[in-house]
Amino acid sequence: MKHILIAEDHAVVRIGTKHLLNSLLPESKVVDVDDLEKVILELQATAYDLLILDINIPGGNDTKMIGKIKSIAPQVRILVFSSYDEQLYALPYLQAGANGYLSKGASQEELLIAIDRIG
């Protein structure tokens, strides 16, 4: 069973992503939060396998949050999930330590492939 944490400040996207993951990965435990402070608290309390992270959430909106997250939970795999242009934003986040970058416009199949590939 995978433990997945979704960090997204837009409620509809967060709830929709959680619902989608619950239906596609029924063996997984999916938790959602809406800001970086709650991400940190969750990672301190629970060993998550995967963090699906919006890059513009309250308390964190730059690549430095990747290092902060990794310092607390070095084992967590990070999939950046953003509406920002992949051509401009993916490389800096990957260089900062994220394990993948996926557009919010991706299909559910692409989401599953990304989750599978980054572990």
In short:
This protein is of the alpha/beta class. The protein is 46% helix and 20% strand.
Could you walk me through the main structural features you see in this protein, from its secondary elements to its overall organization?
This protein has five helices and five strands; from the N terminus they run E-H-E-H-E-H-E-H-E-H. The chain has 119 residues and is α/β, with parallel strands linked by helices. The longest helix is centred in the N-terminal third of the chain and has 14 residues, at 11-24. The radius of gyration is 13 Å and the shape is globular.
Instruction: Assign a percent range to the helix content.
Output: 40-55%
- Major beta-sheet overview: 5 strands, parallel
Rounded average pLDDT: 94
The percentage of residues in β strands lies in 15-25%
State the low-pLDDT regions, or none. Answer: none
- Annotation field: number of helices: 5
The geometry reads as globular
Q: Span between N and C termini?
A: 12 Å
In order across it, which strands form the biggest sheet?
Answer: 2-1-3-4-5
Total strands: the figure is 5
Rounded Rg: 13 Å
Query: What is the chain-wise order of helices and strands?
Result: EHEHEHEHEH
Secondary structure category = alpha/beta
